[in-house]
Amino acid sequence: MILDSFLWRAGLAGVGVAMAAAPLGCFVVWRRMAYFGDATAHAAILGVALALSFNMPVFLGALIIALGMASLVSSLSGRNVAVDTLLGVLAHSALAIGIVAVSFLDNVRIDLMAFLFGDILAVSRMDLLVIWGGALAVVGLLSWRWSALLTATLNEDLARASGIDPVREKLILTLTLAVVVAVSIKVVGVLLIGAMLIVPPAAARVFAKTPEQMAVFAGGVGMASALGGLAASWHFDTPTGPTIVAVAAAAFVLSTIVGLGRQVRA
Amino acid sequence: MSLIEAKGVTVRLGGSVILANVSLSLSEREIVTIVGPNGSGKSTLLKTLLGAVVPSKGRVTRMDGLRVGYVPQTLHIDPTLPLPVLRFLGLPKRVSRDVALRALERTGVASLTDRQVADLSGGQMQRVLLARAIIDDPQVLVLDEPTQGLDQPGSAEFYRLIETLREDLGCGVLMVSHELHVVMAASDRVICLNGHVCCEGAPEHVATAPEYRALFGTGTQGALALYRHEHNHSHDHDHAHEAAE
């Protein structure tokens, strides 16, 4: 059976994460929430430490802390404090505290690098189930709320006048972000989840004429990067998570050049 | 019967009183304009009437199942969001191309269907926003400073468009503005707001009311005349071109 092969499992895991990260990443880009994604992802390392010390599944610990961090940031950003600075403080201190917390766990020997940069080649069948379950839930939730989310992203008052509660839509983004972070740890690690959210939509922007196209193209770029990165890391013997992000970055550079070329001709 | 009614509405935000004991009502096919200086609570009043802000005292009643078409001040759309005009009109409810086209024709921007919303000029954007607001055949059009960033002939023309739409759709119109002179001529009733209702009534009445003059000075009579004068000059304005395209 193909799931017996760790390479197949790795490929499927990468594709699953890319599929969920793409539509959510579009909203992260459109709403300028890049830092928001980073803060949530970085905080997840604290969840990892927590999960390991309480003998919980890593996914669950990361999900809980990511959810807490995402809600915190989301509620703070509503109140006109200097959000940018605040997010910077939260993102980096969450990461630092998380790593310190992991180092306290002296009875468990863990590979810190695996959580920072992912360990896609070690994805188990159970991990795969969690990743695909989470990814499908995220994609389902986002497609169901798509129009409402888009309207709330454009203008909150406009959304309210159409009977949409922008606060609820924001909550949905917060929730899906936490899920994507939790399922992505194994694949790209907490440091590079932000990249999986931002880079594929950014690469897709040049070719997209509608929001739906952008989400689908971003999914394509993300999945291709996951598989391409996996192949490249196998071939060049490089760390897989960073290689996946490097391939996505290359796609972004390429599409930007094509976009610039188009502008010059126009 | 009134479409929207506020009775003794008081709104507190962050400890300070933004609106004190404000009452107003909007009847069918009526154009009511709320004028007031910056920080007078105009936008808050509009949000309260739409139900986005809950009053700490008083009551807002909207007619059962009232269909509201809302035109925001402006739309800051991130350049990373690809959104053609036609798709924008189908948010949040998808509409057929025909329906969208008819709405765009009404506001004089039918030529813009495939343009990206982020690329529109200020005047085009306002007309596209207006087209989206009328797509659901609203009973009330609510506009929050709809002509910000337009020049005076542009604003005057926009308000004439609102009057036409009121006739065609038979809807009530509630708008907020600080361009008193331009907006007044297009209104049935003007409410002068400064945290509370200073004065209200027909435009001519409000323009001469001492409370109004205390807030805005006496220069507005001349400007009102200016607006009427500008009726003759709309032919060389760019909206006329858009409509003709």
Characterization of the model:
The complex is a heterodimer of chains A (about 270) and B (about 240). Chain A is mainly α. Chain A has helices at about 5-30, 35-55, 60-75, 85-105, 110-115, 125-145, 145-155, 155-160, 165-190, 195-205, 210-235, 240-265. In chain A, helix 2 runs antiparallel to helix 10 and helix 11 (about 210-235) packs across helix 12 (about 240-265). Chain A starts with 5 loop residues before the first helix and ends with a helix. The model of chain A has no long low-confidence stretch (mean pLDDT about 90). Chain B has a single domain (about 1-245), classed as P-loop containing nucleotide triphosphate hydrolases (Rossmann fold, 3-Layer(aba) Sandwich), CATH 3.40.50. Chain B is built from 10 helices and 9 strands. The interface of A and B includes residues 147, 157, 201, 205 and 213 of A.
What descriptors fit this protein?
heterodimer, A: 266 residues, mainly alpha, ABC transporter involved in vitamin B12 uptake, BtuC, 12 helices, B: 245 residues, alpha/beta, Rossmann fold, six-stranded mixed sheet, three-stranded antiparallel sheet, 24% strand, globular
Q: Biggest β-sheet of chain B: count, sense, barrel?
A: 6 strands, mixed
Instruction: Count helical runs of chain A.
Output: 12
* Residue share in β-strands of chain B: 15-25%
* Strand order across the largest sheet of chain B: 5-6-7-3-8-9
Shape by Cα distribution of chain A: globular
Topology overview:
The complex is a heterodimer of chains A (266) and B (245).
Chain A: H1 6-30, H2 34-53, H3 58-77, H4 83-104, H5 112-117, H6 125-144, H7 146-154, H8 156-161, H9 166-188, H10 193-205, H11 211-236, H12 240-265
Chain B: E1 2-13, E2 16-27, E3 31-35, H1 42-50, E4 57-62, E5 68-71, H2 85-89, H3 97-106, H4 122-134, E6 140-144, H5 152-169, E7 172-177, H6 180-184, E8 189-193, E9 197-201, H7 203-208, H8 210-216, H9 220-230, H10 238-244
Parallel strand pairs in B: 3-7, 3-8, 5-6, 6-7
Antiparallel strand pairs in B: 1-2, 1-4, 8-9
Helix pairs in contact in B: 3-4
